[in-house]
Specification:
There is one protein chain. Helix content is 81%, strand content 0%. By secondary structure, it is mainly alpha-helical. The protein has a single domain, classed as Growth Hormone, Chain: A.
Length: 416
C-alpha cells in the first residue's frame, strides 16, 4: 500500500515557482478587489455601485471565455501566462494613477468613477484568460498521480493569498491610503511577472486541431454537460457564489451595519478566506477524496447555513465566526471540485473545460457582485444575504436527490 505523501507536488521545482508567483499575483489581485470596492463605495455611498463593479468584470470574462479556452488550448501556456500578467500590471498601474492626489484635485469624481469601471472591464478581459491558462499549466507542471495534491496546494496558496490580501488591504487603506496601497499591489504584480520566466515553455497538446471557436466551445460544453459529476460540482459552486456569496457588499456591512470601518472591512474579508486556507492545508495531510461527493454536498450546505447566520448577525464577533466557518466549508468544496476537474478532464481539452469552469464559477463571482448589489438596494444587505444563503441550501438539497453520480462519487482510487 502506497503511503500518502502530503508534499508530493512540492518536490517539483517548477511547481514551487508557480506557487510563489501565484501567491504574489493573487495577493495583489485580492488586495486590489478590496481597495476598489472600498474606493467605489466611498465615492458613491450606493451598494448598487458595487454591483456595477461586478458587472463590468463579469461581462467580458463571460463573453470571452469561449474564445479564451480555444486560444489557450492552441497556445504555449507559459508565454500566455506571462502576457496575461504583463497586461494585468498595466491594469494595476492604471488604478494607482487614477487614485493619485494629482488626478483627484483635477478630475471630477464621476470621471474617476467611470474610469475605474473601464479599468475593471479591462480586468474582466484578462480574467477570461487567466482561469483556463492556470488550469492548463498546472497539469503540465506535475504528473497525474499528484494532481490531487497539486490541486490542494494550488488552492491553498490561492486562498492564503486571499486571506493576507484582504486583511492587509483593509489595514493599509487606513494606514497609508488607497493610492499607496495600489502602488504596493503594482509591485506585487511585477514580482509575479519576473517569476513566471523561471518556468520553462510547455508543449502544446492541441496544436493540430482545426476546430473553430464555436466548435471548440461546443466540444467543451458538451463534455461538461455529459459528465454529471463535473456538471453537478460546477452547478453547486456557481449557485453558492452567485447567490450565497456576500463579499461584494462587505463594505456595506462594515460601514453601515457593524460600524467597524476599513479595519473591520479587512477582517471580514480575511475571516472568510482564513477558514478556507486552514482547511485546505489540513487536507494535504488528511485527504478528503474518500466519499468525496457526499463531502462536497455537506460542505456547500454548511456554507449556505453560515451565510444565513452572517446575514442575520448584528455582532462583529458572530459575523466573523460565521464567515470563518463558511470559509472552512468553502475550502473543502474547492479542493474537491478542483480535484474532480483535474482528474476527469482530458489534457487536450483543459483550456476549453477551464473556460467553461470560468463561465460557470469564475464569472459568477462578478455576476454575484451585481446580484448582491441589486438585492442589497431592494431588500437591504442583511435580507439579501439571508435569501442568497437560503437559495444555496435549496440547490444542494435538489442536487443531492437528483444527481446520484455526484452523491456517490469517490475519488480515492482515481489518478493512481
Amino acid at each position: 500500500m502506497q503511503t500518502h505523501d502530503p508534499y508530493a507536488a512540492l518536490r517539483i521545482k517548477e511547481f514551487n515557482i508557480f506557487l510563489l508567483l501565484r501567491f504574489a499575483l493573487v495577493l495583489g489581485w485580492s488586495m486590489q478587489f478590496v481597495v476598489i470596492e472600498w474606493e467605489v463605495y466611498s465615492l458613491t455611498e450606493d451598494p448598487l455601485s458595487l454591483g456595477i463593479v461586478g458587472l463590468c468584470e463579469f461581462l467580458p470574462a463571460f463573453v470571452l471565455a469561449p474564445i479564451a479556452g480555444h486560444i489557450v488550448d492552441k497556445k504555449e501556456k507559459r508565454n500566455l501566462f506571462a502576457l496575461c500578467i504583463g497586461l494585468f500590471s498595466l491594469f494595476s498601474f492604471g488604478l494607482f494613477w487614477l487614485t493619485s492626489t494629482y488626478l483627484k484635485v483635477r478630475w471630477d469624481q464621476n470621471i474617476i468613477l467611470f474610469s475605474i469601471y473601464v479599468l475593471v472591464f479591462f480586468g474582466g478581459i484578462l480574467r477570461a484568460f487567466f482561469g483556463p491558462t492556470i488550469f492548463s499549466l498546472i497539469a503540465l507542471l506535475v504528473p497525474k498521480r499528484v494532481y490531487s495534491n497539486a490541486a490542494t496546494w494550488s488552492s491553498s496558496t490561492w486562498k492564503g493569498a486571499n486571506v493576507l490580501g484582504a486583511l492587509c488591504a483593509g489595514f493599509l487603506i487606513g494606514a497609508i491610503g488607497v493610492n499607496q496601497t495600489l502602488g504596493i499591489i503594482f509591485l506585487l504584480v511585477m514580482v509575479a511577472f519576473v517569476l513566471v520566466f523561471r518556468i520553462s515553455k510547455k508543449p502544446i497538446l492541441n496544436a493540430k486541431s482545426t476546430a473553430s471557436v464555436m466548435e471548440s466551445l461546443r466540444e467543451g460544453i458538451t463534455f461538461v454537460f455529459k459528465d454529471n459529476v463535473i456538471l453537478g460540482a460546477l452547478t453547486l459552486d456557481m449557485i453558492a457564489v452567485l447567490f450565497g456569496g456576500a463579499v461584494a457588499i462587505f463594505a456595506v456591512f462594515a460601514k453601515d451595519i457593524l460600524n467597524v470601518g476599513s479595519e473591520g472591512f479587512g477582517i471580514l474579508n480575511a475571516a472568510l478566506s482564513s477558514g478556507s486556507i486552514i482547511t485546505m492545508l489540513a487536507t494535504t495531510y488528511i485527504p478528503i477524496t474518500k466519499n468525496s461527493g457526499k463531502k462536497l454536498l455537506i460542505s456547500v450546505f454548511g456554507f449556505g447555513i453560515c451565510m444565513v447566520v452572517f446575514g442575520a448577525s448584528k455582532l462583529m464577533w458572530l459575523s466573523v465566526t460565521a464567515l470563518f466557518f463558511s470559509g472552512v466549508f468553502d475550502g473543502i468544496s474547492m479542493v474537491i471540485r478542483q480535484t474532480i476537474l483535474q482528474l476527469k478532464t482530458p489534457d487536450e481539452m483543459r483550456g476549453r473545460v477551464g473556460a467553461v469552469n470560468s463561465m460557470f464559477v469564475g464569472s459568477s463571482n462578478e455576476l454575484g457582485a451585481l446580484e448582491s448589489g441589486i438585492a442589497a438596494r431592494i431588500f437591504g444587505a442583511p435580507l439579501a444575504v439571508i435569501l442568497g444563503g437560503t437559495i444555496t441550501l435549496i440547490t444542494v438539497t435538489v442536487i443531492n436527490f437528483k444527481n446520484k453520480s455526484l452523491r456517490e462519487l469517490d475519488l480515492s482510487s482515481d489518478g493512481r
